[in-house]
Design goal:
heterodimer; A: mainly beta; Rieske Iron-sulfur Protein; 3-stranded antiparallel sheet; B: TIM Barrel; globular
Protein backbone atom coordinates (compact mmCIF):
# COMPACT_ATOMS: atom_id res chain seq x y z
CA UNK A 1 0.00 0.00 0.00
CA UNK A 2 2.20 2.89 -1.16
CA UNK A 3 1.44 6.16 0.57
CA UNK A 4 2.10 9.44 -1.19
CA UNK A 5 2.52 12.91 0.24
CA UNK A 6 0.60 15.03 -2.24
CA UNK A 7 0.08 18.48 -0.71
CA UNK A 8 0.50 20.65 2.33
CA UNK A 9 -2.71 20.45 4.38
CA UNK A 10 -3.05 24.25 4.23
CA UNK A 11 -3.33 24.08 0.43
CA UNK A 12 -6.74 22.39 0.62
CA UNK A 13 -8.87 24.37 3.10
CA UNK A 14 -12.55 23.49 3.68
CA UNK A 15 -14.63 24.07 0.55
CA UNK A 16 -11.72 23.69 -1.84
CA UNK A 17 -10.31 20.96 -4.04
CA UNK A 18 -6.93 20.14 -5.54
CA UNK A 19 -5.91 18.01 -8.49
CA UNK A 20 -2.78 15.95 -7.75
CA UNK A 21 -0.80 13.45 -9.78
CA UNK A 22 0.42 10.21 -8.28
CA UNK A 23 2.42 8.35 -10.88
CA UNK A 24 0.03 7.81 -13.78
CA UNK A 25 -3.05 8.63 -11.74
CA UNK A 26 -4.89 11.95 -11.62
CA UNK A 27 -6.55 12.23 -8.22
CA UNK A 28 -8.80 15.03 -7.01
CA UNK A 29 -8.93 15.77 -3.30
CA UNK A 30 -11.98 17.55 -1.89
CA UNK A 31 -12.14 19.13 1.55
CA UNK A 32 -15.79 19.07 2.68
CA UNK A 33 -16.12 20.93 5.99
CA UNK A 34 -12.75 19.64 7.18
CA UNK A 35 -13.13 16.07 5.87
CA UNK A 36 -10.89 15.02 3.00
CA UNK A 37 -11.95 12.74 0.14
CA UNK A 38 -9.68 11.51 -2.65
CA UNK A 39 -11.22 10.30 -5.93
CA UNK A 40 -9.99 9.51 -9.41
CA UNK A 41 -10.32 12.70 -11.45
CA UNK A 42 -11.51 11.25 -14.76
CA UNK A 43 -15.26 10.88 -15.15
CA UNK A 44 -16.01 7.26 -16.12
CA UNK A 45 -18.77 8.43 -18.47
CA UNK A 46 -16.81 10.42 -21.06
CA UNK A 47 -13.66 11.61 -19.34
CA UNK A 48 -14.37 15.12 -18.00
CA UNK A 49 -12.07 16.34 -15.20
CA UNK A 50 -14.00 16.30 -11.92
CA UNK A 51 -11.56 18.78 -10.37
CA UNK A 52 -13.34 21.33 -12.55
CA UNK A 53 -16.84 20.25 -11.51
CA UNK A 54 -19.29 21.94 -9.17
CA UNK A 55 -19.93 20.72 -5.64
CA UNK A 56 -23.60 20.53 -4.88
CA UNK A 57 -26.08 18.60 -2.72
CA UNK A 58 -28.61 15.85 -3.31
CA UNK A 59 -32.14 16.76 -4.31
CA UNK A 60 -34.50 13.91 -3.54
CA UNK A 61 -38.25 13.59 -3.75
CA UNK A 62 -40.68 11.26 -2.02
CA UNK A 63 -43.24 12.03 -4.71
CA UNK A 64 -44.28 14.70 -7.19
CA UNK A 65 -44.29 18.11 -5.51
CA UNK A 66 -42.13 17.06 -2.54
CA UNK A 67 -38.47 18.04 -2.63
CA UNK A 68 -35.66 17.70 -0.17
CA UNK A 69 -32.19 19.20 -0.48
CA UNK A 70 -29.64 17.37 1.62
CA UNK A 71 -25.90 16.86 2.03
CA UNK A 72 -24.82 20.23 0.59
CA UNK A 73 -21.27 20.20 -0.76
CA UNK A 74 -20.97 16.39 -0.84
CA UNK A 75 -21.85 15.73 -4.47
CA UNK A 76 -19.60 16.63 -7.38
CA UNK A 77 -21.15 17.16 -10.80
CA UNK A 78 -18.99 16.52 -13.84
CA UNK A 79 -18.25 19.83 -15.67
CA UNK A 80 -19.29 18.22 -18.96
CA UNK A 81 -22.47 16.15 -18.85
CA UNK A 82 -23.44 16.78 -15.24
CA UNK A 83 -23.15 13.21 -13.88
CA UNK A 84 -23.43 13.38 -10.06
CA UNK A 85 -20.93 11.52 -7.84
CA UNK A 86 -21.04 11.10 -4.08
CA UNK A 87 -17.64 12.36 -2.86
CA UNK A 88 -17.87 9.99 0.15
CA UNK A 89 -18.12 6.83 -1.95
CA UNK A 90 -17.21 7.82 -5.51
CA UNK A 91 -20.44 6.23 -6.73
CA UNK A 92 -22.70 7.99 -9.22
CA UNK A 93 -26.26 8.72 -8.25
CA UNK A 94 -27.89 7.33 -11.40
CA UNK A 95 -25.79 4.23 -12.02
CA UNK A 96 -23.84 3.53 -8.81
CA UNK A 97 -22.69 0.03 -9.78
CA UNK A 98 -21.26 0.77 -13.21
CA UNK A 99 -20.51 4.50 -13.12
CA UNK A 100 -18.18 5.03 -10.17
CA UNK A 101 -14.92 6.71 -9.34
CA UNK A 102 -12.01 4.95 -7.66
CA UNK A 103 -11.68 6.31 -4.13
CA UNK A 104 -8.48 6.41 -2.13
CA UNK A 105 -7.73 6.53 1.56
CA UNK A 106 -6.56 10.04 2.41
CA UNK A 107 -5.37 11.55 5.68
CA UNK A 108 -3.55 14.52 7.16
CA UNK A 109 -0.28 13.61 8.82
CA UNK A 110 2.13 15.78 10.80
CA UNK A 111 5.46 16.42 9.13
CA UNK A 112 7.28 15.06 12.19
CA UNK A 113 5.83 11.62 11.48
CA UNK A 114 6.37 11.76 7.74
CA UNK A 115 10.09 12.51 7.77
CA UNK A 116 10.56 9.03 9.25
CA UNK A 117 9.19 7.43 6.04
CA UNK A 118 8.33 5.18 4.21
CA UNK A 119 6.50 7.90 2.30
CA UNK A 120 7.03 9.16 -1.21
CA UNK A 121 7.08 12.95 -1.48
CA UNK A 122 7.66 13.65 -5.11
CA UNK A 123 7.50 17.37 -5.53
CA UNK A 124 8.44 19.14 -2.33
CA UNK A 125 10.41 18.86 0.89
CA UNK A 126 8.57 17.76 4.02
CA UNK A 127 9.29 19.74 7.14
CA UNK A 128 8.59 18.76 10.73
CA UNK A 129 6.52 21.90 11.42
CA UNK A 130 3.85 21.48 8.70
CA UNK A 131 0.97 19.02 8.20
CA UNK A 132 0.56 17.11 4.93
CA UNK A 133 -2.09 15.33 2.91
CA UNK A 134 -1.25 11.68 2.35
CA UNK A 135 -2.99 9.48 -0.25
CA UNK A 136 -2.80 5.71 -0.22
CA UNK A 137 -2.89 3.87 -3.57
CA UNK A 138 -3.87 0.26 -3.90
CA UNK B 1 -23.08 25.68 0.38
CA UNK B 2 -22.63 25.83 -3.39
CA UNK B 3 -19.05 25.85 -4.50
CA UNK B 4 -17.98 26.58 -8.01
CA UNK B 5 -14.92 25.17 -9.63
CA UNK B 6 -12.11 27.69 -10.05
CA UNK B 7 -12.72 29.84 -13.13
CA UNK B 8 -9.18 29.63 -14.40
CA UNK B 9 -8.85 26.49 -16.52
CA UNK B 10 -6.28 23.90 -15.46
CA UNK B 11 -4.61 22.94 -18.71
CA UNK B 12 -3.00 19.72 -17.51
CA UNK B 13 -6.03 17.64 -18.35
CA UNK B 14 -6.08 19.13 -21.86
CA UNK B 15 -2.40 18.36 -22.31
CA UNK B 16 -3.11 14.76 -21.26
CA UNK B 17 -5.85 14.52 -23.84
CA UNK B 18 -3.49 15.85 -26.48
CA UNK B 19 -0.98 13.12 -25.61
CA UNK B 20 -3.83 10.59 -25.64
CA UNK B 21 -5.03 11.78 -29.02
CA UNK B 22 -1.56 11.57 -30.53
CA UNK B 23 -0.92 8.17 -29.01
CA UNK B 24 -3.90 6.67 -30.80
CA UNK B 25 -3.32 5.76 -34.39
CA UNK B 26 -4.13 8.95 -36.25
CA UNK B 27 -7.83 9.35 -36.89
CA UNK B 28 -8.76 12.36 -38.99
CA UNK B 29 -11.51 14.41 -37.42
CA UNK B 30 -13.94 16.88 -38.97
CA UNK B 31 -16.38 18.40 -36.51
CA UNK B 32 -19.82 19.49 -37.74
CA UNK B 33 -20.81 21.66 -34.76
CA UNK B 34 -18.62 24.07 -32.79
CA UNK B 35 -20.18 27.20 -31.31
CA UNK B 36 -18.42 30.54 -31.45
CA UNK B 37 -19.64 33.20 -29.02
CA UNK B 38 -19.61 36.98 -28.93
CA UNK B 39 -17.66 38.45 -26.02
CA UNK B 40 -20.47 41.00 -26.09
CA UNK B 41 -22.68 42.63 -28.73
CA UNK B 42 -19.84 45.12 -29.20
CA UNK B 43 -18.07 42.44 -31.26
CA UNK B 44 -20.74 42.80 -33.96
CA UNK B 45 -20.68 46.59 -34.06
CA UNK B 46 -17.72 46.98 -36.44
CA UNK B 47 -19.75 44.98 -38.97
CA UNK B 48 -22.95 47.02 -38.65
CA UNK B 49 -23.64 50.33 -40.34
CA UNK B 50 -24.13 53.37 -38.04
CA UNK B 51 -27.89 53.10 -38.64
CA UNK B 52 -28.10 49.49 -37.46
CA UNK B 53 -25.66 50.03 -34.59
CA UNK B 54 -28.01 52.69 -33.30
CA UNK B 55 -31.07 50.53 -33.94
CA UNK B 56 -29.51 47.72 -31.91
CA UNK B 57 -28.80 50.10 -29.02
CA UNK B 58 -32.17 51.83 -29.00
CA UNK B 59 -34.62 49.10 -30.01
CA UNK B 60 -32.74 45.81 -29.66
CA UNK B 61 -33.93 42.38 -30.63
CA UNK B 62 -37.53 41.54 -31.53
CA UNK B 63 -38.25 37.92 -32.34
CA UNK B 64 -41.17 35.53 -32.58
CA UNK B 65 -40.70 34.45 -29.01
CA UNK B 66 -43.85 32.53 -28.19
CA UNK B 67 -44.05 32.62 -24.44
CA UNK B 68 -40.84 32.34 -22.50
CA UNK B 69 -38.35 31.47 -25.17
CA UNK B 70 -34.82 30.54 -24.12
CA UNK B 71 -34.94 29.57 -20.47
CA UNK B 72 -31.36 29.56 -19.20
CA UNK B 73 -28.92 28.47 -17.68
CA UNK B 74 -29.81 25.06 -19.16
CA UNK B 75 -28.00 22.72 -16.79
CA UNK B 76 -24.80 24.80 -16.77
CA UNK B 77 -24.11 28.56 -17.10
CA UNK B 78 -24.78 29.52 -20.74
CA UNK B 79 -25.29 25.76 -21.34
CA UNK B 80 -21.50 25.46 -21.49
CA UNK B 81 -18.85 23.14 -20.14
CA UNK B 82 -17.73 24.48 -16.77
CA UNK B 83 -14.12 24.07 -17.77
CA UNK B 84 -14.39 26.12 -20.98
CA UNK B 85 -14.57 29.67 -19.56
CA UNK B 86 -11.61 31.70 -20.87
CA UNK B 87 -9.17 33.08 -18.31
CA UNK B 88 -9.26 36.47 -20.03
CA UNK B 89 -13.03 36.76 -19.48
CA UNK B 90 -15.94 36.44 -21.91
CA UNK B 91 -18.12 33.37 -22.36
CA UNK B 92 -16.99 29.94 -23.63
CA UNK B 93 -16.45 29.98 -27.38
CA UNK B 94 -15.39 33.64 -27.45
CA UNK B 95 -11.64 33.04 -27.12
CA UNK B 96 -9.92 31.72 -30.24
CA UNK B 97 -6.87 30.85 -28.12
CA UNK B 98 -8.89 28.60 -25.81
CA UNK B 99 -10.78 27.00 -28.73
CA UNK B 100 -7.35 26.15 -30.14
CA UNK B 101 -5.66 24.82 -27.01
CA UNK B 102 -8.61 23.15 -25.33
CA UNK B 103 -10.21 21.68 -28.42
CA UNK B 104 -8.58 21.92 -31.87
CA UNK B 105 -5.01 21.14 -30.71
CA UNK B 106 -5.97 18.86 -27.84
CA UNK B 107 -7.93 16.50 -30.08
CA UNK B 108 -6.09 17.00 -33.37
CA UNK B 109 -9.12 18.43 -35.19
CA UNK B 110 -8.65 18.93 -38.91
CA UNK B 111 -11.72 21.09 -39.61
CA UNK B 112 -14.56 22.35 -37.42
CA UNK B 113 -17.74 23.93 -38.79
CA UNK B 114 -18.97 26.93 -36.78
CA UNK B 115 -22.61 27.27 -35.82
CA UNK B 116 -23.45 30.73 -34.45
CA UNK B 117 -26.49 30.75 -32.15
CA UNK B 118 -28.00 33.44 -29.91
CA UNK B 119 -28.06 36.97 -31.28
CA UNK B 120 -27.15 35.89 -34.81
CA UNK B 121 -30.08 37.77 -36.36
CA UNK B 122 -31.53 34.57 -37.81
CA UNK B 123 -35.05 35.03 -36.51
CA UNK B 124 -35.49 38.79 -36.12
CA UNK B 125 -38.92 39.99 -37.20
CA UNK B 126 -37.72 43.27 -38.70
CA UNK B 127 -36.53 42.08 -42.09
CA UNK B 128 -33.93 44.80 -42.75
CA UNK B 129 -32.52 44.52 -39.23
CA UNK B 130 -32.44 40.73 -39.53
CA UNK B 131 -30.52 41.01 -42.79
CA UNK B 132 -28.04 43.50 -41.30
CA UNK B 133 -27.49 41.39 -38.20
CA UNK B 134 -26.86 38.11 -40.04
CA UNK B 135 -24.41 39.91 -42.35
CA UNK B 136 -22.58 41.20 -39.29
CA UNK B 137 -22.61 37.70 -37.76
CA UNK B 138 -21.18 36.22 -40.95
CA UNK B 139 -18.47 38.87 -41.21
CA UNK B 140 -17.63 38.40 -37.52
CA UNK B 141 -17.23 34.63 -37.95
CA UNK B 142 -14.90 35.19 -40.86
CA UNK B 143 -12.79 37.95 -39.29
CA UNK B 144 -12.62 36.63 -35.70
CA UNK B 145 -12.38 32.90 -36.37
CA UNK B 146 -12.16 31.55 -39.93
CA UNK B 147 -9.56 33.99 -41.27
CA UNK B 148 -7.07 33.73 -38.38
CA UNK B 149 -7.70 29.97 -37.93
CA UNK B 150 -8.11 28.00 -41.18
CA UNK B 151 -9.26 24.89 -39.28
CA UNK B 152 -12.48 26.80 -38.50
CA UNK B 153 -15.06 27.12 -41.27
CA UNK B 154 -17.91 29.61 -41.04
CA UNK B 155 -21.60 29.01 -41.78
CA UNK B 156 -23.75 31.41 -43.78
CA UNK B 157 -26.40 32.44 -41.26
CA UNK B 158 -29.53 33.60 -43.10
CA UNK B 159 -32.59 35.61 -42.01
CA UNK B 160 -34.57 32.48 -42.77
CA UNK B 161 -38.11 33.89 -42.41
CA UNK B 162 -37.24 36.34 -45.19
CA UNK B 163 -36.33 34.32 -48.26
CA UNK B 164 -35.36 37.22 -50.48
CA UNK B 165 -32.96 38.65 -47.91
CA UNK B 166 -31.63 35.14 -47.27
CA UNK B 167 -30.81 34.67 -50.93
CA UNK B 168 -29.02 38.02 -51.01
CA UNK B 169 -26.91 36.96 -48.04
CA UNK B 170 -26.08 33.59 -49.60
CA UNK B 171 -25.04 35.38 -52.81
CA UNK B 172 -22.89 37.79 -50.79
CA UNK B 173 -20.98 35.01 -48.99
CA UNK B 174 -21.15 31.86 -51.10
CA UNK B 175 -18.05 32.45 -53.21
CA UNK B 176 -15.87 32.90 -50.14
CA UNK B 177 -14.26 29.53 -49.25
CA UNK B 178 -14.37 30.51 -45.57
CA UNK B 179 -18.04 29.39 -45.59
CA UNK B 180 -18.93 25.69 -45.61
CA UNK B 181 -22.73 25.60 -45.38
CA UNK B 182 -25.97 27.61 -45.15
CA UNK B 183 -27.23 27.65 -41.56
CA UNK B 184 -30.84 27.50 -40.36
CA UNK B 185 -32.53 26.45 -37.12
CA UNK B 186 -35.11 23.67 -36.78
CA UNK B 187 -37.86 25.77 -35.21
CA UNK B 188 -38.80 27.80 -38.26
CA UNK B 189 -42.02 29.85 -38.53
CA UNK B 190 -43.57 27.25 -40.86
CA UNK B 191 -42.48 23.65 -41.42
CA UNK B 192 -39.22 23.74 -43.34
CA UNK B 193 -40.62 22.32 -46.58
CA UNK B 194 -43.00 25.27 -47.02
CA UNK B 195 -42.51 27.05 -50.32
CA UNK B 196 -41.60 30.32 -48.64
CA UNK B 197 -38.19 28.76 -47.92
CA UNK B 198 -37.58 27.31 -51.38
CA UNK B 199 -35.52 30.26 -52.67
CA UNK B 200 -33.03 29.51 -49.87
CA UNK B 201 -32.75 25.88 -50.96
CA UNK B 202 -32.39 26.93 -54.59
CA UNK B 203 -29.50 29.24 -53.71
CA UNK B 204 -27.78 26.61 -51.56
CA UNK B 205 -28.11 24.00 -54.30
CA UNK B 206 -26.82 26.45 -56.91
CA UNK B 207 -23.65 26.98 -54.88
CA UNK B 208 -23.21 23.34 -53.87
CA UNK B 209 -23.57 24.24 -50.19
CA UNK B 210 -25.43 21.98 -47.76
CA UNK B 211 -28.16 23.48 -45.61
CA UNK B 212 -27.54 22.72 -41.92
CA UNK B 213 -30.57 22.73 -39.64
CA UNK B 214 -29.39 23.15 -36.07
CA UNK B 215 -31.83 22.51 -33.22
CA UNK B 216 -33.37 25.54 -31.43
CA UNK B 217 -34.77 28.67 -33.07
CA UNK B 218 -37.57 31.03 -32.24
CA UNK B 219 -40.26 30.32 -34.79
CA UNK B 220 -42.73 31.10 -32.02
CA UNK B 221 -43.88 27.50 -31.54
CA UNK B 222 -43.58 25.40 -28.39
CA UNK B 223 -40.86 22.79 -28.07
CA UNK B 224 -43.40 20.00 -28.43
CA UNK B 225 -46.34 19.52 -30.75
CA UNK B 226 -48.67 19.97 -27.78
CA UNK B 227 -47.59 23.00 -25.81
CA UNK B 228 -44.85 24.15 -23.48
CA UNK B 229 -43.24 21.49 -21.25
CA UNK B 230 -42.19 22.17 -17.64
CA UNK B 231 -38.66 20.77 -17.67
CA UNK B 232 -35.38 21.16 -19.54
CA UNK B 233 -35.29 17.37 -19.86
CA UNK B 234 -38.47 17.60 -21.92
CA UNK B 235 -37.03 20.41 -24.03
CA UNK B 236 -33.99 18.21 -24.70
CA UNK B 237 -36.18 15.34 -25.83
CA UNK B 238 -38.34 17.75 -27.82
CA UNK B 239 -35.53 18.58 -30.23
CA UNK B 240 -35.95 15.22 -31.90
CA UNK B 241 -39.58 16.01 -32.70
CA UNK B 242 -38.74 19.36 -34.32
CA UNK B 243 -36.05 17.56 -36.36
CA UNK B 244 -38.69 15.05 -37.45
CA UNK B 245 -40.89 17.92 -38.59
CA UNK B 246 -38.03 19.32 -40.68
CA UNK B 247 -37.29 15.99 -42.37
CA UNK B 248 -40.96 15.10 -42.93
CA UNK B 249 -41.85 18.49 -44.34
CA UNK B 250 -38.84 18.69 -46.68
CA UNK B 251 -39.60 15.24 -48.07
CA UNK B 252 -43.38 15.42 -48.33
CA UNK B 253 -43.54 18.95 -49.76
CA UNK B 254 -41.31 17.73 -52.57
CA UNK B 255 -38.23 19.85 -51.83
CA UNK B 256 -35.87 17.06 -52.91
CA UNK B 257 -37.87 16.41 -56.06
CA UNK B 258 -37.54 20.07 -56.97
CA UNK B 259 -33.88 20.41 -55.81
CA UNK B 260 -32.31 17.04 -56.61
CA UNK B 261 -28.78 18.09 -55.61
CA UNK B 262 -29.76 19.65 -52.26
CA UNK B 263 -27.92 18.31 -49.20
CA UNK B 264 -29.40 18.74 -45.71
CA UNK B 265 -27.63 18.20 -42.39
CA UNK B 266 -29.66 17.83 -39.19
CA UNK B 267 -27.47 19.15 -36.38
CA UNK B 268 -27.62 18.26 -32.68
CA UNK B 269 -30.93 16.43 -32.76
CA UNK B 270 -29.58 12.91 -32.23
CA UNK B 271 -30.46 10.28 -34.82
CA UNK B 272 -32.15 7.29 -33.15
CA UNK B 273 -35.58 8.56 -34.23
CA UNK B 274 -34.86 8.50 -37.96
CA UNK B 275 -35.40 4.79 -38.75
CA UNK B 276 -38.87 4.72 -37.15
CA UNK B 277 -39.86 7.96 -38.90
CA UNK B 278 -38.69 6.59 -42.23
CA UNK B 279 -40.67 3.35 -41.83
CA UNK B 280 -43.77 5.33 -40.87
CA UNK B 281 -43.47 7.72 -43.82
CA UNK B 282 -43.04 4.88 -46.30
CA UNK B 283 -46.08 3.12 -44.91
CA UNK B 284 -48.22 6.26 -45.15
CA UNK B 285 -46.94 7.05 -48.64
CA UNK B 286 -47.82 3.59 -49.94
CA UNK B 287 -51.41 4.10 -48.80
CA UNK B 288 -51.85 7.75 -49.80
CA UNK B 289 -49.53 8.29 -52.73
CA UNK B 290 -52.27 10.05 -54.69
CA UNK B 291 -52.35 12.86 -52.14
CA UNK B 292 -48.72 13.70 -52.90
CA UNK B 293 -48.31 12.82 -56.58
CA UNK B 294 -45.36 15.23 -56.83
CA UNK B 295 -43.29 12.58 -55.02
CA UNK B 296 -41.82 10.11 -57.49
CA UNK B 297 -40.14 7.85 -54.95
CA UNK B 298 -40.71 6.50 -51.47
CA UNK B 299 -39.83 8.90 -48.65
CA UNK B 300 -37.05 6.57 -47.48
CA UNK B 301 -35.25 7.04 -50.79
CA UNK B 302 -35.20 10.83 -50.51
CA UNK B 303 -34.04 10.56 -46.92
CA UNK B 304 -31.28 8.08 -47.76
CA UNK B 305 -29.99 10.38 -50.49
CA UNK B 306 -30.41 13.91 -49.12
CA UNK B 307 -30.27 13.81 -45.31
CA UNK B 308 -27.19 13.62 -43.10
CA UNK B 309 -27.20 13.88 -39.30
CA UNK B 310 -24.54 14.91 -36.82
CA UNK B 311 -23.79 12.33 -34.15
CA UNK B 312 -23.99 14.53 -31.06
CA UNK B 313 -25.71 14.24 -28.61
CA UNK B 314 -25.03 10.53 -29.06
CA UNK B 315 -27.67 7.97 -28.29
CA UNK B 316 -26.25 5.87 -25.43
CA UNK B 317 -28.17 2.58 -25.17
CA UNK B 318 -26.89 0.12 -22.59
CA UNK B 319 -26.28 -2.50 -25.26
CA UNK B 320 -23.95 -1.03 -27.89
CA UNK B 321 -25.30 -3.52 -30.44
CA UNK B 322 -28.53 -1.50 -30.44
CA UNK B 323 -26.59 1.61 -31.40
CA UNK B 324 -24.75 -0.15 -34.21
CA UNK B 325 -28.03 -1.58 -35.53
CA UNK B 326 -29.60 1.89 -35.50
CA UNK B 327 -26.68 3.34 -37.47
CA UNK B 328 -26.89 0.42 -39.89
CA UNK B 329 -30.56 1.25 -40.56
CA UNK B 330 -29.73 4.92 -41.16
CA UNK B 331 -26.58 4.20 -43.17
CA UNK B 332 -22.99 4.46 -41.90
CA UNK B 333 -22.39 7.07 -44.59
CA UNK B 334 -25.05 9.45 -43.19
CA UNK B 335 -23.58 10.31 -39.77
CA UNK B 336 -21.16 13.18 -39.25
CA UNK B 337 -19.21 13.54 -36.03
CA UNK B 338 -19.94 16.71 -34.03
CA UNK B 339 -18.66 17.76 -30.60
CA UNK B 340 -20.88 20.76 -29.78
CA UNK B 341 -17.84 22.37 -28.14
CA UNK B 342 -18.00 24.34 -25.80
CA UNK B 343 -21.50 23.37 -24.72
CA UNK B 344 -22.11 21.12 -21.74
CA UNK B 345 -23.23 18.11 -23.73
CA UNK B 346 -19.88 18.05 -25.57
CA UNK B 347 -18.94 14.73 -27.21
CA UNK B 348 -15.29 13.68 -27.23
CA UNK B 349 -14.41 12.22 -30.68
CA UNK B 350 -12.47 9.34 -29.12
CA UNK B 351 -14.98 8.46 -26.39
CA UNK B 352 -18.37 9.25 -27.90
CA UNK B 353 -18.56 5.98 -29.86
CA UNK B 354 -18.53 2.73 -27.90
CA UNK B 355 -15.60 0.35 -28.01
CA UNK B 356 -16.05 -2.22 -30.74
CA UNK B 357 -16.97 0.23 -33.48
CA UNK B 358 -15.04 -0.99 -36.54
CA UNK B 359 -12.15 1.36 -37.26
CA UNK B 360 -13.20 2.07 -40.86
CA UNK B 361 -16.75 2.91 -39.68
CA UNK B 362 -15.36 5.20 -37.01
CA UNK B 363 -13.19 6.96 -39.58
CA UNK B 364 -16.17 7.31 -41.90
CA UNK B 365 -18.19 9.12 -39.23
CA UNK B 366 -15.24 11.15 -37.94
CA UNK B 367 -14.32 12.65 -41.30
CA UNK B 368 -14.92 10.75 -44.55
CA UNK B 369 -18.67 11.42 -44.62
CA UNK B 370 -18.12 15.12 -43.91
CA UNK B 371 -15.83 15.43 -46.91
CA UNK B 372 -18.72 14.33 -49.11
CA UNK B 373 -21.10 16.91 -47.62
CA UNK B 374 -19.31 20.15 -46.78
CA UNK B 375 -17.41 22.42 -49.07
CA UNK B 376 -14.01 22.28 -47.38
CA UNK B 377 -11.61 23.42 -50.08
Amino acid sequence: MPRHVVARAAEIPPGSRKLVHVGERDIVIFNVKGELFALSDKCPHRGGSLARGRLTGVVTSSGPGAYEYTRPGEIVRCPWHGWEFDVRTGRSWCDPKRMRLMNYAVSVEPGAKLVEGPYVAETFAVTIEDAYVVVETK
Amino acid sequence: MMLDAPRAPVHEADADRRADAQARTRLEIIDGDVHPALRSMADLKPFLSPQWREHLEIYGSRRRSGFSYEPYPKSAPKACRRDAWPEEGGPPGSSLDLIRTQYLDAYGIEVAILGPLGASGNSELNMEFSAALVSATNDWQREFFAKPEPRLKASIVVPSEHAEASVQEIERCANDPAFAQVFMLTRTGEPAGNRRYWPIYAAAERHGLPVGFHVFGSGGHPYTGTGWPSYYVEEGAGHSTSCQTVVTSLVIEGVFERFPRLKVVIIEGGFGWLPALTWRLDKLYERMRSEVPHLKRRPSEYIREHIWLTSQPMEEPENRRHLFDTIEWIGWDRLLFASDYPHWDFDDPFRAFPAGIPRERHQQILSANARAVYRLA
